[in-house]
Specification:
Elements lengths: L6 E6 L4 H13 L4 E5 L8 H11 L3 E4 L13 H13 L4 E5 H5 L15 E7 L7 H9 L4 E9 L6 H10 L4 E6 L4 H6 L7 E5 L13 H7 L10 E7 L7 H11 L4 E7 L4 H12 L6 E6 L4 H7 L6 H6 L4 E5 L2 E5 L2 H13 L10 E5 L3 H12 L3 E6 L2 H10 L3 E4 L10 E4 L24 E4 L8 H8 L3 E4 H17 L5 H18 L1
Parallel strand pairs: 1-2, 1-8, 2-3, 3-4, 4-5, 5-6, 6-7, 9-10, 9-11, 14-15, 14-17, 15-16, 17-18, 18-19
Antiparallel strand pairs: 11-12, 12-13
Helix pairs in contact: 1-2, 2-3, 9-18, 13-14, 13-17, 17-18
The structure holds NADP nicotinamide-adenine-dinucleotide phosphate (NAP).
Length: about 525
């Protein structure tokens, strides 16, 4: 019997039979469909310990004893490895994983390879890049006697390389796992299910991955809701570089779940530079079957996104020449900027005034990067008198010219006169949580202090400002508002902002715990 529906396999990489047993049980209890017992991780594997483990998890396990030259830990003689796999087979596991390279080099005959009750997973791993012809390789593997599942895994440096794995899954007619390793490979690991992947792999916890880029069991089940993905699932994502620590997957996937929307949101790392951006965009537009409906865009691609959908109709995008939201409708790509309206709404809410009443207010803005650009352009348009201070003065001058604001030397930020102070630098962001872009004694009680940094949620600047009696506005407020506007643009449903906020807070708490 071939796995149907697809199986979520948790790899167990413990060094003693006892800890392997405990972790495998926990993974099954927590919702893994199968466990892969990575027997090559055991310190001194014996035939008896391996047979006992396989027998205990029999139809819920895959047994793998990967040799070191294939990316595993086993370093003994091949004859001994085959003997240990025979011991595993005696425990009746569902599958035994065997390396295609050994068969291709005639080191093992398929009829003599120990197998599970459902046969073999015949696997090919490449830690450099994709095979020259994945389809041909997959066909060669599928033709091997007793091969129940063909597995191809290769290292991806960039998200666009995932498309070859998905292309293979869409066209193959035999049970296949095709996935990319590394941080850039998440798309194939999660979305493979939409295209009929026989299975995917996950780690039990952060730090116990058996291959680079494996997501955790909890992320697969709770954040990406892997078991709910089907051929109709729509794709959303975040493109930028880096994107691994973003909160966006947590908040959007929670919002989709709340509204019962059949969609998944993934971090999609796209290298810096306009060429990489355009290449990615062309690759997704050429593949309408991906079901891509929308993208969030972050550093360093907001201006690349603006150029690619020029001229956007959205006035905020035009004013800042930056796009943080892409919506796809067939071949049409619509670009908007939700950072600017979110920042303005956050500020007006905190000042307890309307957006019109912001006109004429003096604002001091620290920083001249991406977020500064959107906020300065929006505030200048609202009629505020904006002064920009930046460590690199040329960037402050440039931004000031761009949005008809003033610039002033970074050192003079302690002598400001404005009613609102906005930190748009990354100073105070994790891990430098004890830093602030301005000394506490330069903060007057009449001031409203807005820190766009949201990790940590309560920055040193906000703590100093609250202690001095200032009104404070945390970056999380703007972050949730800009995400809510994206959600509404993509789905035409009201954004469940409380749920999104709770998901962000939970993700930040997990992040703080791990750090
Ligand atoms: P960015 O384009 O890289 O800009 C970084 C800015 O920080 C530049 O102005 C840079 O000055 C300044 N900077 C960095 N290190 C500094 C230091 N040690 N001393 C003084 N200035 C320093 O980044 P960004 O996208 O604008 O993001 C900036 C912050 O905003 C990040 O913390 C990000 O998380 C946050 N953010 C929040 C939201 C939200 O919704 N709340 C949205 C986007 C971004 P130079 O020009 O001199 O390098």
């Amino acid at each position: 019997m071939i796995p149907d529906p697809p199986q979520l396999i948790a790899s167990i990489v413990q060094t003693s039979p006892e800890t392997m047993r405990r972790q495998a049980r926990s993974a099954l209890d927590r919702g893994a469909d199968l466990v892969e017992l990575r027997l090559d991780y055991l310190h001194q594997p014996t035939a008896e310990s391996i047979r006992t483990l396989a027998a205990e998890f029999h139809n819920r396990c895959v047994c793998t004893l990967r040799p070191a030259d294939q990316g595993g830990r086993y370093v003994g003689p091949e004859t001994e490895r085959i003997n240990l796999l025979h011991a595993a087979a005696a425990g009746n596991p569902r599958f035994i994983d065997f390396e295609y390279a050994r068969i291709a080099e005639n080191a093992a005959h398929p009829d003599e390879i120990p197998r599970g009750t459902d046969g073999l997973i015949v696997s090919h791993h490449d830690f450099i890049g994709p095979p020259s012809d994945p389809t041909r390789l997959a066909n060669d593997i599928a033709a091997i006697p007793h091969c129940a599942i063909t597995k191809l895994a290769w290292a991806a440096q960039d998200v666009a390389e995932n498309f070859r794995a998905l292309d293979l899954l869409r066209t193959t007619s035999t049970p296949t796992i095709a996935l990319c390793m590394g941080r850039a490979g998440l798309l194939s690991r999660v979305l493979g299910r939409k295209f009929g992947a026989a299975a995917t792999y996950c780690s039990v916890d952060v730090g116990s991955e058996s291959a680079p880029g494996q997501p955790t069991l909890d992320d697969m089940r709770e954040c990406f809701r892997w078991h709910h993905i089907d051929s109709d699932t729509d794709l959303f994502g975040l493109i930028g570089w880096p994107v691994a620590h973003s909160l966006s997957p947590d908040i959007f996937n929670a919002a989709f779940q709340h509204h019962n929307i059949n969609a998944v949101y993934l971090p999609l790392p796209v290298r810096p530079g306009p060429e990489a951006f355009t290449q990615f965009l062309n690759a997704v537009l050429e593949r309408p079957w991906l079901g891509l409906q929308g993208l969030s865009v972050t550093l360093p691609h907001k201006q690349n996104a603006f150029r690619n959908c020029s001229p956007p109709t959205d006035p905020s995008a035009r004013r800042s020449e930056a796009v943080n939201t892409l919506k796809f409708d067939g071949p049409q790509t619509e670009g908007t900027n939700t950072d600017a309206p979110a920042a303005i709404a956050s500020i007006a809410h905190t000042m307890q005034c309307t957006i019109e009443e912001l006109s004429g207010i003096d604002v001091d803005l620290l920083g001249a990067g991406g977020v500064a650009r959107s906020i300065a352009a929006a505030l200048a348009h609202a009629g505020c008198n904006v002064t920009i201070y930046n460590r690199t003065p040329q960037r402050a001058d440039q931004l000031a010219r761009f949005c008809r604001a003033r610039s002033a030397p970074w050192q003079s930020r302690t002598d400001r006169r404005g009613r609102i102070l906005i930190n748009c630098t990354s100073v105070g962001m994790w891990p430098d949580v004890n830093e602030s872009p301005i000394p506490a004694d330069a903060l007057d009680p009449e001031l409203t202090v807005f820190d766009t940094v949201y990790n940590p949620p309560q920055t040193r600047l906000l703590t100093d400002a609250a202690a001095r009696g200032c009104r404070t506005l945390p970056g999380m407020d703007m972050f949730i508002r800009q995400a809510a506007l994206q959600f509404e643009a993509w789905t035409a449903r009201p954004a469940p902002t409380e749920i999104m906020k709770r998901a962000a807070q939970a993700a930040l708490a997990r992040f703080a715990e791990k750090s």
